[in-house]
Amino acid sequence: IRDYKVTGVQTCALPIYQGSHNLVYSGARARDGRPVILRQLRPELATPQLFTRHQKEYELLRRITSDYVIEPIELIETEDSPILITERPEGIPLAEYIRDSRPGLREAAKIAWLIARAIEDLHKFNVVHKDINPANIVYDPVTDDLKLIDFGISAVLPPNNINPEVNRSIEGTLSYLSPEQAGRMNRCVDFRTDYYSLGVTLYELLTGVLPFTD
């Protein structure tokens, strides 16, 4: 259990996940009981680049207004590493739901519609997620609520960007990357990459497997 000061209010959190760069905690604010997620850069691995990524992710989330996107609450600057605090959505990762429940055609169509709405909202704010996949989608089958999470590599594209840069590095979850993200095409990464990843996600949603396994 970790204790954090969130705008002067004590918050207790339990560890729920340890990634290659992040430590993730689930907790609730003491002042109002609001469920929150705290994602902290692992202090021993923190770099200026990852510091900047956390800050950019927070600022990016603040510009988005959508019922289908995780809501940012605060970014805490600590001596060791920043802590990004967001709402804690109800539900489970869509990857877990696909694995355990195998939704039928009607429910798959409903989930697909929700994901498409979420992506549409992102693009209205000129944001490209760049890592759409079932692990980054939280779905509640009881309420049909759905949230996109993990905007660590997301980007804001200027409207009417005529000469965007070609992608020079591979970021994201390999099985869901568009060809331009994976460096297989000499083309820029733009809004279409999210729709490619959506297509792969829908294939998995309907079949339980990925379209490409090699």
Walk me through this protein's architecture.
The protein has helices spanning 48-62, 94-101, 105-124, 192-207; strands spanning 2-6, 9-18, 22-29, 35-41, 72-76, 83-87, 92-93, 127-128, 137-140, 145-148, 155-156. With 214 residues, it is of the alpha+beta class. The strands form 3 sheets. The protein has a 6-stranded antiparallel beta sheet with strand order 1-2-3-4-6-5, covered by helices on one side. A 3-stranded antiparallel beta sheet has the order 7-9-10. Helix 3 runs antiparallel to helix 4 (192-207).
Brief sketch in words of this structure:
This protein has 214 residues and is α+β, with helices and mostly antiparallel strands.
Structural class: alpha+beta
Rg result:
18 Å
Number of separate helices: 4
Proportion in helices:
25-40%
Largest sheet: 6 strands, antiparallel
**How would you describe the shape?**
globular
- Strand-and-helix sequence, N→C? EEEEHEEEHHEEEEH
Residue windows where pLDDT falls under 50 for at least 5 positions? 6-10
Strand content is 25-35%
How far apart are the termini? 41 Å
What average pLDDT do the residues reach?
Answer: 84
How many beta-strand elements? 11
